[in-house]
Amino acid sequence: MSELMVRHIYRWDLDKTYLRTDFDTLRDLIRTALQTPEEKVNVPGVVTLLKELTHQNDGSRALVTFISGSPSQMRPKLERKFELDGIRPDVFILKPTLQNILKGRFRAVRGQVGYKLDSLLRVREGGPSAPETLFGDDAEQDAFIYSLYADLAGGKVDRDGLFEILDRAGVYSTTRASILERYARMRIDGNVGRIFIHLDRHSAPGRFWVYGPRVVPITNYFQAALVLYADESLTLEPVLRVAAGMMREHGYGVVELANSFQDLIRRRHLGAEAIERLSQDARGSEAVGGLPAGFVERLLGRVRALAPRGGGGATRGWEGPPDYVGVLEADRRLRETIEAEPGLFGRRQ
Amino acid sequence: MGGDHAPAAVVAAVAEASLRGGVGQGVNFLLVGDEIAMTEALFELDHNSERIQLYHAPTVIGMGERAQVALEARSDASIVQACALVQAGEADALVSAGHPGAAVLAATRHFGLVGGLGRAALASVYPTPRVRGEAEDPFSLILDVGASLRARPEELLGFGLMGSAYARIVSRNERPRVALLSNSRESTMGTPEVVQAHALLSRHEAIHFYGNIEGHEIPRGLADVVVCEGFVGDVAIKILEGVSEAAFDLARAAYHERMAWRMGLKLLSGGLQKIKQLTDFEAYGGAPLLGLEKVVILCHPRSGRRAVGNALRLAIKNVRAELPAAIAEALDTGLSQG
Asked: Where do the Phosphatidate phosphatase APP1 catalytic domain residues begin and end (chain A) (predicted)?
């Protein structure tokens, strides 16, 4: 199997991207740690999508890597969970949280930039060259880290720029040195394409616009499948199988899926060409079990409910690469801002 | 998608509601208005896009327009499109913060009237010191507050029946007290319609009739349901709202006037805040338009995000309680008795 040509690399985060994990409170954290593999719950549609993406095709294969912020002590449980789901990651990296605590590197326990970027560069070093698609979520800094990684691979950020970003992000000097060394050896091939951010917290999509149109915030994996269809990374049948799985296993209805479809059109992630192709492909495609009759027509009906696109609603302008230092600074300011509640007669004194 | 703060306030309320569990659990929202403007607003807001659909309607009926003329001229207006979507079963309830007259007219044209009354009534709530029903609602219900100008005695009886049904369902008040708004407590005083309505209400078995009340008695909460014709109700509710706002404007001015007053108001601020919350129209959400086959909630055109959010909650509650059917039943049995 390993001798097959690698056609694509899919890099995934785990918690809140693949698994529905709550760790917002100490209680959630303890519960998550004590969960058995059987009790762990997937994000709807993720397993079907991953299987469709890695489905062997024309003598090539797709490679799947997971880089997670969960502590390495979770490995046996998580590997068992993958086994239950029928997923075999090619690389599975967990965070050395205990080591960080013992070494007194407390910033690294919470911080993700240094750990994830170093891991991404390390995995890339030893791996084949192929187009990459990344999956993360809105809980931490995935959009920031993935965009930076993509811009490093595309030669858009130089060494000095990287040094400053890592410095501002509070990355420990040893990790920073490791990242800079790996960067010096990095293939600059511009191979990193789409970045999907699962909106686990339902964050405003506009929050991610700073990273440009490459980053696609998604509410569910049906949306990811549709964008991959628009990118011609998937054909229509796998997209419909993701939808059918979400309906069958997670209680989704046609309305929720149609709303998700319309949301992508409104945000310009599905253009007129993709919609036209979908309409044509639907005529020639076989019925997918579990989907109600006329499912694609219901989706297309949502297009007609929107404003005519000629002229109005021009595409948002964006010039990259992002100002990573500016993003970190804005993030810091936001955290430091404590807004006073206005009192009855004006601002609280 | 009308209103002084539309589309921002309306879209923000829906975005917030899409994230909510509780009353709004499992509810999907259909936003009707300028799609580009709504999309731009949603883009910057936390929301669950699985629960929100947008429907493009290019125009809005402005507050200064004559409702009837505007409705006839513009079938693409958001209120017309929204009513058509509800009529077609795409949604179960209509919430509007736009031109109230246009909303009443569009809703009555699209949705059938229930119970053979032949007229819908706009019901508003007003806070009172007395709480009522299992829900311990501190509000009196006043109807009609402007769905139409005049009402015949039988229609005022119908308003009493609808108000009673609403109080039973929403406030869980099994035996709501119904009063007729007049210029005197005397049953023989007032316009001929009011005198005749008094007679009809007082002898109706399904109505727990309190008698006539005067305007100043509304805030005292003597009745749970206050019945009046639309013109009178509209004037009364606006006076009551204006008095509350003026009282707080005076307190605010006094606060900045003298140190002693400022200190006094500071000491009272906790209690004043509670009164402000109680008299704040944003807290009620909106006014249900009763007597139609669909749930319709009209918000004050000045409504912000909180008011529209509360109106959405009220609409969901009324749909879940199957309010139109309950009102139809109350009118069917009540009017045949009357």
From this structure: 13-151
